[in-house]
Amino acid sequence: SPPPPDACLPLQVLQAAHCQTVKELSACLSGQSLRLDCRYENKTSNPLTYEFSLAKDNRKHIIHSTIGVSENAYRSRASVVMEKNLVCLLLQSFTTSDEGVYMCELKATNDYTGSQTKNITVIKDKLEKCAGFSLLIQNTSWLLLLLLSLPLLQAVDFVSL
């Protein structure tokens, strides 16, 4: 017999309760570093915890985390930048020995529905070069340059008058 219609309800409620969703995980090569962009949608202002890990040789290696403990081998090479809807991992001196399946796991504080994860297989030869560190950072430096050059522009205008 078919289940009663309200059997779906708890599942829908659980799905709606997710405070954050991992939208996309992308990888690129920035110089000698691997860059992983973990984009997410946030539905809460609760603090976000994250974990970047690498699965290789049938083992999970934690690279950078606020959830678990990072492995020494990666800790000195890894750094994370957090922006609105983006957690970005930079792994320096990336070599073929760092290839494998990378995972980004996000969890918002007090989100009892568990964490959200996305995986990506990273192979050095197949990585594309990064287009630029971040639009926000690029824009900030561009704006800063503009602001710094304003007095110069005004001085030039003044001289040309």
UniProtKB/TrEMBL annotation:
It comes from the Eukaryota. Its main location: membrane. It is a lipid-anchor; GPI-anchor. One of its GO terms (molecular function) is GTPase activator activity. The keyword Membrane applies. Gene3D superfamilies: Immunoglobulins. It is found in: Cell membrane. GO terms for biological process: cell adhesion; integrin-mediated signaling pathway; positive regulation of focal adhesion assembly; regulation of cell migration. InterPro entries: Ig-like_dom, Ig-like_dom_sf, Ig-like_fold, Ig_V-set, THY1. GO terms for cellular component: dendrite; external side of plasma membrane; focal adhesion; membrane raft; myelin sheath. PROSITE patterns: IG_LIKE (PS50835). Keywords: Cell membrane, Disulfide bond, Glycoprotein, GPI-anchor, Immunoglobulin domain, Lipoprotein, Membrane, Pyrrolidone carboxylic acid, Signal. Residues 10-121 form the Ig-like domain. May play a role in cell-cell or cell-ligand interactions during synaptogenesis and other events in the brain. This is Thy-1 membrane glycoprotein. It comes from Casuarius casuarius.
